[in-house]
Amino acid sequence: MNISEDLKKEKFRFKKQFGQNFISDDHLLAKIVEAAEITPEDVVIEIGPGAATLTAALAEKAAQVIAIEIDKDLFPIIERRMAGYSNFELVAGDAMKVDFDALAAKYGAKRYKVVANLPYYITTPIVMRFLEEGFRVSELVIMVQQEVADRFLANPGTKAYGAITAAINYYGSVSRAFNVPRTMFTPRPEVDSSIVKIKCYENKPFEADDEKLLRRVIKAAFGQRRKTLNNALKALNLPKDELDKALQRAGIDAARRGETLSVEEFVCLSNAISKISK
């Protein structure tokens, strides 16, 4: 599929502020749809449809596709490509402000999938918005920078493991479907990418009593990676005796660094702090 003609016809200019890198290879589009395991019952939300190449591939399989696009210059291209699909809705808006549940509810969806070639600049904020704000998403299948995918999938104790790793893995199970070379994009970005799947938990294996506190604990633990928990967690502004008691109750050595803690250990520590500080 060649999108160059569509873009030239509309005299479209790529905008760096929107991180626009489009995909058009039919084989790649099919692989993304296959990775998302789209069924005829699925309602799918796509963020940043671009030239609507992935949008059309999704609409071939899904019950309904809702595409959210911030760049109105793309609307004529999207509308022309999607003219033959009755199961498609184009929404003008900022994905950081849209009520996704309300959009999906119009089509009777209790839970829905998110499939997107995400603009790189918005990857972490939009993923965390979906997870932290409790939207009824069953799964996210997203294109991200390969380096970001490495961080999402990192194990405790490794250099790539960080606050974002712990946070995302608290909300869902993460896997890499496949890598995508930079040559598959128009225009070509400076890095390679990966398709990542985040299956959101309906019932989390480890439940935090206070998720806001959990996020604070994770952030503090990674605030200064070289510091031990005993020092890093001072950022929580808790009395030292309470922090010592919480670490002891959670069975965590205060001399460890935050980067060595698993998601389960972060939850145990957060819950211990919550109980002690009440």
Give structural attributes.
12 helices; two-stranded antiparallel ribbon; 38% helix; 7-stranded mixed sheet; 9 strands; 278 residues; Rossmann fold; Helicase, Ruva Protein, domain 3; alpha/beta; elongated
Description:
The protein has 278 residues and is an alpha/beta fold. It folds into two domains: 4-200, Rossmann fold; 211-276, Helicase, Ruva Protein, domain 3 (Orthogonal Bundle), CATH 1.10.8. It contains twelve helices and nine strands. The longest helix has 14 residues, at 263-276.
- What oligomeric state do these chains adopt? single chain
What are the segments in which pLDDT stays under 50 over at least 5 consecutive residues? none
What can be said about the biggest beta sheet? 7 strands, mixed
Tell me the fraction of residues in β-strands, as a range: 15-25%
> If you compute it from the alpha carbons, what radius of gyration comes out, rounded to the nearest whole angstrom?
21 Å
CATH homologous superfamily descriptor of the largest domain: Vaccinia Virus protein VP39
Shape call: elongated
Highest CATH level, the class of the largest domain: Alpha Beta
Secondary-structure-based class equals alpha/beta
- Which fold name is given in CATH as the topology of the largest domain? Rossmann fold
Report, as a whole number of angstroms, the end-to-end distance: 60 Å
Architecture (CATH level 2) name of the largest domain: 3-Layer(aba) Sandwich
Q: What is the spatial order of strands in the main beta sheet?
A: 4-3-2-5-6-9-7
**SSE pattern, N- to C-terminal:** HEHEHEHEHEHEHHEEEHHHH
Average predicted confidence as pLDDT: 92
